[in-house]
Write a structure and sequence with these properties.
Elements lengths: L8 E4 L2 E4 H15 L3 H9 L2 H13 L6 E5 L5 H14 L9 E6 L2 H8 L11 E5 L12 E7 L8 H11 E12 L5 H22 L3 H13 L3 H10 L3 E8 L4 E7 L2
Helix pairs in contact: 1-8, 7-8
């Protein structure tokens, strides 16, 4: 059989699977953990993920009247932070339009978990919720001022397809912010972090979410994600400019920021 007839495989944790199989299995992971997703993020990072997201918003610098698409936005915390920060700026600029945001996630269970908490949210009228795939975004060309994806890009079956979609949907001058677990800058710290990740996080998942296997995958997927420099180059290949990388907590997470020009 020729190479052209061999299905392309991608990583699902430490396994190699087809792209379709990864999409199916990732949906299953997040369907399983949706109800405890935010709580587990707090426990796994001791709440530090909230500081990383805060610093991401500082870098993104939301403005009144802007439209955000938060891909793999799950329960909506990033989108709400965007609107809140834009509103702060708007208070100094009377008669400006309010910012808006759409949360786009491939997993309906994650969207449902977020929507169930947003009924009384002050931002609910300016938040949209759409089930969609990062590799084929259901949005028009040049329709967003900013795109965020927090801890979601490593779960996408084809990163380059997603990055090209981000580039298509962003307006000229739009900003991309990708926050993702990454690689620590000191090898000894990486070893200690790996020991913690593989021994503690799946057990925590079993205890809190009743699902060790999904958190085993999430830990493995972090280790399979490319280094900061390799991923930065992928963003540039997709057509972005002015790419920068900010390491958080010694590289446990990294913010990749870029401009669509």
């Amino acid at each position: 059989m020729s190479d052209s007839h061999i299905s392309k495989t991608v990583s699902f944790g430490f396994e190699r699977v087809t792209e379709d199989e990864k999409v199916r299995r990732v949906k299953g992971v997040f369907r399983s953990v949706a109800g405890k997703y935010d709580l587990m993020n707090d426990l796994m990072s001791a709440g530090v993920h909230r500081l990383w997201k805060h610093d991401t918003m500082v870098k993104l610098n939301p403005q009144p009247g802007e439209h955000l698409i938060d891909v793999a936005g799950g329960t909506g915390d990033v989108a709400k932070a965007f609107l809140e920060r834009a509103d702060r700026v708007g208070r100094r600029r009377p008669q400006t339009q309010s910012a808006t945001a759409v949360i786009c996630d491939i997993n309906e269970a994650m969207l449902s978990a977020g929507q169930s908490r947003s009924d009384l949210d002050p931002f609910s009228r300016r938040l949209g919720w759409i089930c969609g795939d990062a590799m084929a975004l259901p949005f028009s060309d040049r329709s967003a001022d900013a795109i965020t994806i927090a801890f979601g890009i490593r779960n996408v079956a084809d990163r380059m397809k997603a990055l090209c979609e981000f580039r298509r949907v962003l307006k000229p001058g739009g900003r991309l912010a990708v926050l993702e677990f990454s690689h620590m800058t000191a090898p000894l710290l990486q070893q200690a972090y790996d020991t913690y990740s593989f021994n503690v996080i799946p057990r925590l998942g079993a205890l809190v979410a009743g699902d060790a296997a999904s958190y085993q995958y999430l830990v493995e997927s972090i280790r399979q994600f490319p280094t900061q420099d390799i991923f930065r180059k992928e963003i540039e290949v997709a057509g972005f400019s002015g790419t920068s990388v900010t390491n958080f907590s010694g590289g446990i997470a990294a913010l990749h920021f870029a401009w669509a020009v």
